[in-house]
Amino acid sequence: MPRPRHCRRVAMVPHVAYYKPRGVPLSALQCVELAVDELEALRLADLEGLYQEEAARRMNVSRQTFGRIIESAHKKVADALVHGKALSIEGGPIEVTEPQANRPEPPCRRGGPMGGPHRCRRRGAGRGHTT
């Protein structure tokens, strides 16, 4: 059994769940699934221009894990663009935080010593979309 993934901090859950080529019905397209944490990695590295170490700190993962996340995200986006596939954004163990400077962010706890509830949310467990 694989080890469970730790929560990844993301600044927001996207309002748009699909991107697709214009003029082609979604039902006629193959779909590439991009996890919310992969979108966050793209935002931090490519849009904000952060180094991997700082981006990893913001997402509450190691630099090596961030490198794997961003590599996977780049491959999925490239596959969707080059091969004309739809891009679905959902899923993954995430913790949504407000992006505020100088504010300590709480750790993702899985019922730890403070007895707090599990704040990590797994989004989009299902894969069969019919929209």
TrEMBL record:
InterPro entries: RNA_pol_sigma_r3/r4-like, UPF0251. Residues 89-131 are annotated as: Disordered. Signal peptide: none annotated. Residues 118-131 have a biased composition (Basic residues). Belongs to the UPF0251 family. HAMAP family: UPF0251. This is UPF0251 protein QJ522_09560. It comes from Anaerobaca lacustris.
